[in-house]
Design brief:
The complex is a heterodimer of chains A (about 220) and B (about 220). Chain A has 10 helices and no strands. Chain A has helices at about 5-10, 10-45, 50-65, 65-75, 80-105, 110-115, 120-150, 165-175, 175-205, 205-215. Chain B has a single domain (about 1-215), classed as MetI-like fold (Orthogonal Bundle), CATH 1.10.3720. Chain B has 10 helices and no strands. Classes of the chains: A mainly alpha (about 220), B mainly alpha (about 220).
Chain lengths: ~220, ~220
């Protein structure tokens, strides 16, 4: 199995377009996933009874094969980018929800009591105290969800989308390994770069965790 | 939507759908066979690695990066790649499924080992236990709940992903998903998806029940 380098040279424009479309699908899904999971996580954190239900439901969604999710969305949104993004969002939910709930749980009760004693209202406490303190755990979830979404986009190749995944179908149908190898390598690179960027974002957003590590 | 659900109900209970070599019974057996074998092989590779990394506290960097690498690896691409290299065989399916399962097991095993109280390890060593005795008689039992969590996670992922065997012309419940997709038969796709989800949930519940029986004497650990 050898790589046909001239094929790569001839298709740089296509490869760039596919990579960008791949990234766009994954990032939209993670952002949507955050928008949906954040309020759900706050509910699951505050209302104990709903917690098991919400986490259990998201776990069951996770067990449905991704290809089936995409196909089942076809009657709703057709062979479009929307189907890809909704399907991916469903997958990011389980990780984002679980980590956000865990992050909120990890905020010390004393800190919340202190905020309350200072007269801070619940919503303000959530935004200015709880969410920032939960950020490291939430970001861990965002990192996992992003890498997962990037790797899963290719499954949408069965419904005619799929970004770099189209290279897999192409190589499979023509019995030609080069596009498949290029697709796998580019997907891994995208995931690595996205993960490194998120680590940097987290580093910038949580200066207090660095001070703690130095023991100050 | 209602028509679809009615069709699904009829599809799931019809007796001819369950019988024969392309019946649900046979496809279910195939699916379980792929999933369980892949998870077992993955465990045989990942458990010793996770235990050794956790015991020696060396190579943690590799373990953590391996897990994010494994998550980033596109399964479809891997299956097609191995398929093109090996031709029509079960290798693409098993290699892809094992590659999917190994990272979850390694990272959870490692996490379980590092969560063991260092004082307990020191006490065991102070009593004159050899390193393998500390590993097998002290650390392993204490790390088991997290190791089991890793195995459960891996199994769920593998069961959901074993669908892909049908893409490279093998069986399993993915047959219904891919055949339904080719025939634009949504009822069949939905039926396959529901069956896969049910298998994953049932296996997960069975493992968690097993876990509860095995660790009855311990305070419950959050899953």
């Amino acid at each position: 199995m050898s790589v046909d380098w001239s094929w790569i040279a001839d298709h740089t424009d296509d490869l760039t377009a596919l990579t960008l479309s791949h990234l766009q699908a994954a990032l939209t899904a993670v952002l949507l996933g955050l928008l949906v999971s954040l309020p759900l996580a706050v509910v699951a954190h505050r209302v104990r009874r709903l917690r098991g239900l919400l986490l259990g439901l998201s776990n069951i969604l996770f067990t449905i094969p991704s290809i089936a999710v995409f196909v089942l969305l076809l009657p709703v949104s057709g062979l479009t980018r929307t189907t890809t993004v909704i399907g991916l969002t469903i997958y990011t939910l389980v990780v984002l929800l679980r980590n956000t709930v865990e992050g909120l749980d990890s905020v010390p009760a004393r800190t919340k009591e202190a905020a309350k004693a200072m007269g801070t209202r619940p919503l303000r406490t959530l935004i200015t105290v709880e969410l920032p303190l939960a950020l490291p755990v939430i970001m861990a979830g965002v990192r996992i969800a992003t890498v997962m979404a990037i790797s899963l986009v290719s499954v949408a190749t069965y419904i005619g989308d799929g970004g770099l995944g189209q290279l897999f179908t192409d190589g499979f149908q023509r019995n030609f390994p080069t596009p498949v190898i290029v697709g796998v390598v580019l997907t891994l690179l995208l995931a690595l770069v996205a993960d490194a960027l998120l680590v940097t974002v987290q580093y910038v957003l949580t200066p207090w965790t660095r001070r703690q590590k130095r023991g100050v | 939507m209602y028509e679809l659900l009615k069709g699904l109900g009829a599809w799931l209970v019809s007796s001819e759908q369950w019988a024969g070599s392309d019946g649900i019974g046979h496809r279910l057996t195939e699916h379980l066979q792929y999933s369980l074998l892949a998870t077992l092989v993955a465990a045989a590779i990942a458990l010793p690695v996770g235990l050794l990394i956790g015991h020696t506290r060396r190579g943690a960097f590799i373990a953590i990066n391996l897990s994010s690498f494994g998550r980033a690896l596109p399964t479809v691409g891997l299956v097609v790649l191995v398929f093109l290299a090996s031709g029509l065989s079960m290798w693409p399916v098993y290699i892809a499924l094992v590659a999917l399962a190994v990272p979850s097991i390694v990272t959870n095993t490692y996490a379980g080992m590092t969560a063991v109280d260092p004082e307990v390890r020191d006490a065991a060593r102070g009593q004159g236990m050899r390193w393998h005795q500390v590993l097998l008689q002290v650390e392993l039992p204490l790390a088991l709940p997290l190791i089991m969590t890793g195995l459960r996670l891996a199994l769920i992922q593998v069961v959901a992903t074993a669908t892909i065997a049908a893409y490279v012309s093998f069986g399993g419940l993915g047959r219904y998903v891919f055949d339904g997709l080719a025939q634009r038969d949504l009822v069949q796709v939905l039926g396959g998806a529901v069956l896969v989800a049910v298998v994953a949930v049932v296996l997960d519940l069975a493992l968690s029940a097993l876990q509860r029986v095995l660790f009855r004497h311990r305070p419950a650990t959050p899953a």
